[in-house]
Design a protein that fits this description.
By secondary structure, the chain is α/β, with parallel strands linked by helices. It contains eleven helices and 16 strands. Among the domains are: 139 residues, FAD/NAD(P)-binding domain (3-Layer(bba) Sandwich), CATH 3.50.50.60; 105 residues, no CATH class. The two termini are 42 Å apart. About 3% of the residues have low confidence.
């Protein structure tokens, strides 16, 4: 039996453990987690009976195998959730799926509603070409944006950075309004300092052209036979009690399959001999401990992994790159309020939320706030 040591009980570490154990492999699996929580940055924080998702983690993938993996751990709802019944929302329901009103181990189908707050006006996200958008932008700004986009269509910039990537797809005016300030505020770097590859991964084929095509398909009822752009999806899955619930379920699955999860184990050294890792050294509540193994899987930050290697050091170039890797942190502030007041604009039904959004992007350059997330619209049970 091969001994496997996995560093980190986040989505990657837990998934690796389950796949090793469930496929009948002859493995003795141990996960080392520095904190007491499962899920890494996808955990759900509990406070006074309330839950808060620290990231805004929607569950959606174009890979059906990934969707099936999630559904195997947490089945899709078979009956309407509380807010769906109150607001009259229709959702695709799984046959014989659990009822979220009576069962906890259930994945909800949620409507993706996001807006941009800019210059004291709300705009659809992604930006839609409809009368309200033009009204909020103003006729002059709309004309400038239109001509700016046409200019960008003719005079393409070399996509050597994220700024040029966005300008080529939206024009400089819309880029300045809705992408430049928010990107710098969120990632701590101006788009001109970020690789264009990041934009390709983040918004894929999203552009004014894609938005117009999507709008016409909705107006004329035509179905999209191709792949849906990630930024244009209208529904996603979400665990009843937040993303942490799914990864806590995954952790329990690891234990059921015979794996071990040790919390409070902060890996500080990765011991190597030649090109092989032989053990990891951890700080624990009982003092320093060493864990040996045959196979090592790491989901810890690459910078800490490289700089923590002992015995055989990586080359100077690798160490230099590792030391220079930047990490972007963020501050999440959770507000608990007694009552929210939201209306369904179709039938005027009230449920108790002010807005229907999952999140609101705050784009004004002078405002430090990045986005507002309304947890009750992700799950009414949070």
């Amino acid at each position: 039996m091969e001994k496997v040591i996995i560093i980190g009980a986040g989505p990657a570490g837990l998934t690796a453990a389950i796949e090793l154990l469930k496929n009948g492999g002859d493995y003795d699996v141990t996960i080392l987690e520095s904190s007491q929580a499962m899920g890494g940055i996808s955990q759900t924080v509990r406070y006074n009976g309330n839950r808060m998702d620290i990231g805004g983690h929607r569950f959606f993938s174009k890979n059906q195998q990934v969707m099936d993996w999630w559904a195997d751990l947490m089945p899709l709802q078979g009956k309407p959730a509380y807010d769906d019944k109150k607001l009259g929302h229709e959702k695709p329901l799984a046959e014989n799926g659990p009822d979220p009103e009576t069962e906890d181990n259930v994945m909800l189908v949620r409507d993706r509603v996001s807006r941009i707050y800019y210059n004291k006006h709300f705009f659809d996200y992604p930006i839609s070409m409809k009368p309200e958008t033009i009204k909020n932008m103003g006729f002059v700004t709309t004309m400038k944006a239109g001509f700016s986009y046409l200019w960008a269509c003719v005079f393409k910039k070399p996509e050597t950075n994220l700024e040029n990537f966005y300008i080529n797809r939206f024009g400089k005016v819309l880029y300045s309004m809705f992408f430049e300030g928010y990107t710098e505020k969120l990632w701590g770097r101006h788009p001109s300092e970020i690789s264009a590859d990041w934009g390709s991964q983040r918004v894929k084929g999203l552009s004014i052209t894609a938005l117009l095509k999507d709008m016409f398909k909705k107006v004329f009822g035509t179905k999209n036979k191709g792949e849906v752009e990630t930024s244009l999806i209208e529904q996603f899955w979400y665990p009843k009690y937040g993303p942490g619930q799914l990864w806590e379920t995954a952790a329990n699955k690891v234990k059921e399959l015979g794996g071990k999860i040790l919390t409070g184990c902060q890996v500080k050294k990765i011991m190597c001999e030649g090109r092989k890792v032989t053990s990891v050294v951890c700080d624990t509540a009982e003092g320093e401990k060493t864990f040996t193994g045959d196979i090592f899987i790491s989901s810890m930050p690459v910078k800490d992994l490289i700089l923590g290697m002992d015995g055989t050091k990586p080359c100077d170039t690798v160490i230099k790159i590792a030391k220079g890797l930047p990490y972007r942190d963020f501050v999440t502030v959770g507000l608990l309020v007694n009552k929210l007041n939201l209306k369904n604009e179709t039938n005027k039904t009230t449920l108790g939320n002010i807005v229907p959004d999952c999140w609101i992007y705050v784009q004004d350059k002078g405002v430090k706030l990045g986005r507002i997330q309304i947890f009750n619209n992700w799950s009414p049970y949070m």
